[in-house]
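Interim report to the steering committee. The following record documents the input for Fibulin 1 (884 residues).
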Amino acid sequence: MEKELVLRKTIAIEQILSLCCQEGEEWGTQNRLCSSFNKSLELVPGELRGLCLSTIEICCSKQHKIYQCTAGQIAARQGLSCSLKGDHSGSEFYTDCCEACKIGLVVGSSSSKCSVDPFAFGSPWDEVYDGCCKDIKQDTFILNEDDENNLCGRFDNLCSQICENTVAGSYVCKCYPSYTLMDDRKTCAQITSEDENEIPLDNTLSDCRIGYEKDQRTGECVDVDECETGEAACDAQLQVCMNVEGSYKCLDIQEVKCEAGFRYDRKTGKCEGGLQIPTPAPKKKVESCAPGFRRHNDQCVDIDECSADKYACDSNQVCTNEIGGFRCDCKIGFMLDQVTNACMDINECQINAHECLESQRCDNTIGSYTCIRLQSCGTGYTLNAETGNCDDDDECALGRHNCMAPYECFNTKGSFRCRQRSSQTTTGNSIITTTTTTSTPRPVYYTQPPRTQPQYGPVYQPANQGQQVEYNRYLGSCGIGFERNALGACVDIDECARENVCRPNQRCVNGNGSYRCHDLLICPNGFTANNDGTECLDVDECLTGEAKCGPDQVCKNKRGGYVCLCPAGHIIGRNHRCEDVNECDLHKGKVCPQNSECINTVGSYQCDCKDGFRKSRPEDLICTDVDECSEIPGLCHQRCINYWGSYRCGCEPGYKLASDNRTCDDVDECDEYKSNNLCVGFCENTPGSYGCRCPPGYKLGHDGRSCIDIDECEPRDVCNGRNEICTNIRGSYRCTRINCPHEYEIDPDRSNRCRRTTKYCNPGDTECLRKPTSYSYNFITLVSNMPVPPSGRALFNLRGPAWYEAIDFDLKLLSVDAPPNVRPVDQRFFSLNKLSNEVLLNLVKSIEGPQDIELELSMTVFKDGQPYGSNIAKLFLMISAYEF
């Protein structure tokens, strides 16, 4: 164990089990399988190890339930399914918490109270319901003094998962368990682990479905081999793990029987060679098979429904065969509707699951999407071909501006501005410049405008006072703030020496050519001193007109300042203007109930029912399903299946849905399944089905597909001519008359044999001895293209006497009758296999029908080196036109 369990005998059992529980919680926190706990318990007393393991598993399972409950709530908030496929620890808590959260979201969005008293679900449903219900409660967007620091309450998209306000008037983002905060300090990403014992508790929140994982190289979702990763919970001693698409199966070893030297391969699902394994027990004969299996060689074998029926799944699904059944999975670009179990198209553009650039427009297609480049970037921008982004044009650098002197060009995003150049003035004399400020918090000065001190010329002393005045007039005025002294020089006027120059609460400060009034009481921003200068009073900026609120805003004075309030459904945005709050984007999936679509309006929003739904009354909030099947007669050609929000058209057995998804076309089983040999004879398609027909000379079997040959020779009087023999062939029959050669007659014991009229030959009569003792007429019927093994197929054997000295056999092809389009046989189609005193006639090639073949097989017996007798077998091969 990573943490040593320092357990002494003096430690109480409760303390030991508490440490064991901590180990279990830590093991479960790492998303490991509770039953796979493999840390050492050497320091735990032997008599307590069993209790310790039980405690570890309980605490580990509790941790899994907490994680699954959190994952279920996240799925509910994201509008995902509440069903968790696969066998995962604590999965029932995922479903329960997800459903309880969805109920809370619906109740909260309808402005109802979030009380659990009417339900009293119990734990953990009550806590989850209450939390989700309160989270969805609609916010009021009227800014007031109390919620200025409640940023998380005012703006719902600050964080991807958890937003917490701080004392400093800011906020921080946090994440749910098993998630970590990304570098942008806003987005949460799922924590991954490379430990082989990790179990996928949060697969439902990733981009791939349960049982799949994203390929790091291609980015596509690929099947997870749970048998290889160790995630499969199969008993290694009693079961064999078999991976299937998106999941796995645990098969009992007794169910997997392989012959000696073979082993079941869970990857291929077949018995593979190369290992010496004891021969399994003989298979028992079965009378009937379970659904999904068929009888073959006295055993039940799995039916591949996907190959047997092309329409086992919808056109938007992929059929996957399983042992005893099959599974329909949605194709890429589709997702399963949990209510209807139909695969619906995923709008990748709407859920932002596309990879289009900012300079491209995402257009949804059935099962996929396309990225279309926008045609223009707008005035002031140019499309960057490499990045696909719109780059700003610097009109100043490109000379595309119209700024004239004394203005200079200043570039901005998408445009430019003409800005006046700053001017500088330099004089030889010192100039005192006074400024007047109108800002509320600054002191107000009563001051003379700045004046320029005049130039001084030579001073001449006049002879008398009259001359002095005239002389001063000659010199001219000194300007405001200055006066001439007795010597005629311009000197500063001390305005502060006068009375009532400044207000009572101000102090006068004289300057060169001017003066300043300093406030004795300095007030902060938003305040001004009273007339006595003894108190700072609030400035009502709304009343004085100093407030800079827009025409659509309401000015509200507050102590030390003012606020500009926007109408309901608006918020102050850029440039301090009121902007409409898009409640639909700000609270995605939360402002409107299920089955409705949020439409933003100026200052508010409205909830419109989605296609396939409507409100029972205009004032209702809930959208109910429209039963298109009952309201629109003839909507579908054959079957109409209503489901939540839409409908589907279906077809009767033997029909398939046409491309318009409404009408049904007949399935031509004879053409669709011609490789499966539905009929032995001829297959005839019928509306919604098919039938089997046999050619003349055959009758249809009890199974409705086999063709059984009719034996026309069974009635004894079919061939009633003299010396006629009836030969049944596939699909017909032949009446063949035997005409014996001269000096031969029909053998009364064998109707197909002609014997010599003179039974014995005189000694030395070699001509008589050379004549055949008998002629036999043999009729053999074969089907067209009958399979022939490499060793050949025996057709006829001819046996001689046992006392022979030597026997000679000879085969001749006498005639072949075949139509022009059929290849006639030659002697290479046959071979003779001699065995002591007999010979076997073998067929070594398949014969195409129809055609008639006549062969002659002769046998000559020798004694003392001379012919001592012979027999001839006439062979008539009749090849039918059919292969059955």
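DSSP finds 14 helices and 55 strands in the chain. The committee is asked to note this result when reviewing the revised timeline.
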